[in-house]
Amino acid sequence: MCRHLACLGPPEPLGRTLVDPPHGLYRQSWAPRRQRFGTVNADGFGVGWYAEGDPVPARYRRAGPIWADLSFADLARVVRSGALLAAVRDATLAGADAEAAAAPFAGGPWLFSHNGAVTGWPDSLAVLAHTLPAADLLSMEARTDSAFVWALVLARLRAGDPGGQALADTVPEIAAAAPGSRLNLLLTDGATITATAWGDSLWYRTDPGRRTVVASEPYDDDPHWLEVPDRTLLTANRTEVLLTPLKDPVSAPPKEPRT
Q1: How far apart are the C-alpha atoms of 6 and 103, rounded to whole Å?
Q2: H/E segment holding residue 81
Q3: What is the model's pLDDT at position 252?
Q4: Residue 247: strand, helix, or coil
Q5: Which of 26, 39, 132, 239 is the most buried if burial means most Cβ atoms within 10 Å?
Q6: For residue 2, is it left (φ>0), alpha (ψ between -120 and 50) or beta?
Q7: How far apart are CA 198 and CA 177, in angstroms?
Q8: What is the pLDDT of residues 218-258, one digit of tens each?
Q9: Annotation says 2 is catalytic
Q10: Do 103 and 46 meet the contact criterion of CB atoms below 8 Å apart?
Q11: What sign results for the dihedral spanned by CA atoms 70, 41, 113, 220?
């Protein structure tokens, strides 16, 4: 379900990464090559990017397929950024949340996307709802599994956890409550990229010191793309990529609410 991509590099038009490549995210909306679940990602899309000197990203999101938005091509042609996160969506369940359900989700300097699905949603994660402050639940952008996953991650970020720790703690927590969930998460603050491979494809390529791309699947046939093993945490910046194994969870009582 869904395809997503994050990139750190020199400032360039968004379309250079999302539209121009022969198998870019734009094309993956109707013809993904390595998607294991679903075939078409036409239930919304979004892109978030950072302007120089501003730590809070801008977002452009829509409820329909990316190819049907005639304004996106112009935006992608002229807007330049050295850091972005984008996604095309294949909805787990039909809903009325429109573009609010489309990634990237945002909070402060962070952009976030979830490629996958939570098994048994929403009943399976009811046990985790009380671990969040009531205000976090009431301010969720959408009534979807991805929005709830983001609420769990964001609570950890606001508590001071680094991005890698926030994802590494959230994924096993959800997997313990909802076994069989697919939890490929993608997070950036404009300077780093953090991601998990948990149930679906994830790849990366890097030109050390210049450009790093992390994506659900390669956007071209360059041999420098490397696949991330399943059950792995990826942390990256413009100079290096680190891969750390993630352990399958052991069921444990839910934690106390965060305050």
Answers
A1: 12
A2: strand 80-88
A3: 43
A4: coil
A5: 26
A6: left
A7: 15
A8: 999 999 999 999 999 999 999 999 999 998 886 444 555 55
A9: yes
A10: yes
A11: negative
Instruction: Give the separation between CA 124 and CA 134, rounded to whole angstroms.
Output: 19
Provide the residue ranges of all domains of the chain, joining segments of one domain with +.
3-245
The angle formed by the CA atoms of residues 131, 158 and 142, to the nearest 5 degrees, is 65
pLDDT-based confidence at residue 38 (cuts at 50, 70, 90): confident
The per-residue pLDDT for 51 is 96
Instruction: Render pLDDT for 107-148 as a digit per residue (tens, 0 to 9).
Output: 999 999 999 999 999 999 999 999 999 999 999 999 999 999
Q: Which CATH class is domain 3-245?
A: alpha beta
Q: How far is residue 87 from each of residues 105, 107, 122, 220, measured CA to CA in Å?
A: 10, 17, 22, 17
Task: Report how far residue 202's alpha carbon sits from residue 34's, in angstroms, rounded to the nearest whole number.
Answer: 9
Which one is catalytic: 2, 86, 155, 246? 2
Distances (CA, A) of 119 to 50, 124, 149: 33, 7, 12
The span from the CA of 231 to the CA of 236, in Å, is 17
Burial classification of residue 99, based on how many CB atoms lie within 10 Å of its CB (0-12 exposed, 13-18 middle, 19 or more buried): middle
The torsion angles phi and psi of 152, rounded to 5 degrees, stand at -65, -45
Angle among Cα 237, 240, 245 to the nearest 5 degrees reads 95
* Paired sense of beta strands 203-207 and 211-215, if any: antiparallel
